[in-house]
Amino acid sequence: MSAVTSSLSKHQENNLLSLFSYARLHLLYKASIHGFTAAAFHGRCDQQGPTVIVAYNAAGFVFGAYTSKDYARSGAAVSDGEAFLYSIRAEKDKPLRVGCVSGKPAFTDGGPGPNFGDLVFLHEDKPAVQSNPGNCFIFQEAEMHGNDLALIEFEVYRVEGLGDLLEKPWRNIQWTSEKKQQLMTSIQNYLPEIKAVNQARVLLVGPVGAGKSSFFNSINSAFRGNMTCQAITGTAGTSVTTQVPAKVNFFRAYTIKAGRRGGTLPLILCDTMGLEENADTGLNVDDVVSIFKGHMKDRYQFSSCSSILEDSPGYQKHVTLNDTIHCVAYVIDTCKVSLLSEKMLDKLTAIRKKANQLGIPQILLMTKVDEACPLVAKDLKNVYRSVYIQKKARQLSDFLGIPLSYVLPVKNYSEELELDQNTDILLFMVLEQILNYADSYFENQITDDQDGSNGPDKYLELSFYVDCCHIHKL
Length: 474
Ligand SMILES: Nc1nc2c(ncn2[C@@H]2O[C@H](COP(=O)(O)OP(=O)(O)OP(=O)(O)O)[C@@H](O)[C@H]2O)c(=O)[nH]1
Ligand SMILES: [Mg+2]
Hints:
Elements: H1 10-17, E1 23-30, H2 31-34, H3 38-45, E2 51-57, E3 62-67, E4 77-78, E5 84-88, E6 96-99, E7 107-108, E8 119-121, E9 129-131, H4 141-145, E10 151-161, H5 177-188, E11 200-205, H6 212-224, E12 252-257, E13 264-271, H7 285-292, E14 327-333, H8 342-357, E15 362-367, H9 369-372, H10 374-378, H11 387-400, E16 407-409, H12 421-448, H13 457-472
Parallel strand pairs: 11-13, 11-14, 14-15, 15-16
Antiparallel strand pairs: 1-10, 2-3, 2-10, 3-5, 4-7, 5-6, 8-9, 12-13
């Protein structure tokens, strides 16, 4: 499924955003893809909170309506003091903004297309607008839409307020070179609690394009001391991990070196193909369970039609605690939190359930904090002061039932050519936390051995148990 993209040019988007105090736009509906019908509009735009309609005509006008209220097909006339109609034209610097006449309703919340009285969109389920100014909104038709009432595109965006900066950050970070050095040293010196295990094995799971591979590249770069791109990254509707056959559709277990000729870190980052909404595309839950249990070998080639089987070439039958996953990091794009679909949340919940059953600690990485909040883009040190990022962290914690303390914002390297101290610090903080949680996993294995009579063999038994679970699907 290819991604649905906005038809707004950067100039038009900036002009539209200038009508709001401080907001970002999420595309909910695009008529050329979803249909120029009232049913398609309501299916995607009802109960979405504040939204803005963006209609395009062949005369070059981009115009529409904002409401802070829900569409709900209630049949009621809705009053909304914040509602307005607007129009953007390339040759004009400032958009036209027309507020609602006081005391008049902003729109009729019916079953047909959005009806702002003076402008009725998707009129009679067609790519058309009915224009009748002078009742609730006063405007000149030539200025609003140039008297061209046929639409070449019609979109609706959710408008999300970005909020400001908190007076006090919700987590304290020292943004100093000493802190960076201390974090690096503590990660390099990390030793898993269990002697038989050499490296903490961390699995990165998340929707397509969330930044899983970029997270590995970023950590690798930060430790190397220069930018690296070992894992292939990119943007597309489907997982980059499946686009170039025989090149990137692999399960990868990456080791990381401290410096070019330095030693290997006590950490393995396992990168997977992205999760997709549909049941039969992207990474499937059965494959995730096989990875949890250590059965998937490095470079196993994912297949979206079937999960790994015991007789598959990349299946590792005999596993030890070195092969199992010790911590799962869910990777979610902060910009897309409110667009996570039920289907995607169901998939993530199914994976969480399996991880819980196996006692694997889980953490949530919110990537692209720079894209999500301009205040963070301006200065990464604002990451724990941004009201928007905090709101998204809380939302994610709610959606997935993961305590807020396990939700960590992060910014990956994406287009930079040089490393940045603050980006490194945030990345290392995440890594340090991951290692702490991996330790909880190891500690649990040890506390299970209450009488202390079991040496390393205990873990061979455990691994055997893991294996049996798989075979007998206990
Ligand atoms: N600005 C910004 N861009 C990011 C960040 N993380 C990733 N990106 C960009 O997002 C796009 C997707 O990143 P990937 O790392 O390929 O995502 P992925 O989760 O591995 O995707 P699949 O393997 O396709 O499932 C790339 O263009 C990255 O450069 C981030 O923190 N900030
Ligand atoms: Mg990837």
